[in-house]
Amino acid sequence: MIKVKSRAGESVQQMVKRFKKMCEKEGLIRDIKRNSYYEKPSERNRRKRRKSQRMARLFSSTNL
User: Is the pTM higher than 0.70?
Assistant: First the structure.
């Protein structure tokens, strides 16, 4: 759960801006957008497989 405590002399707009950044950093917005529509299990598996292939390629190229 994301919590934002006010700092000394900080306006509400600055707190909201920090909250939005924290949400984006946690990937909360991306998850909400992804869950806003139904995704078939085969599409979910395909997305996960592509992500793992992309990560494997990235790590194999950095280890050379």
Answer: no
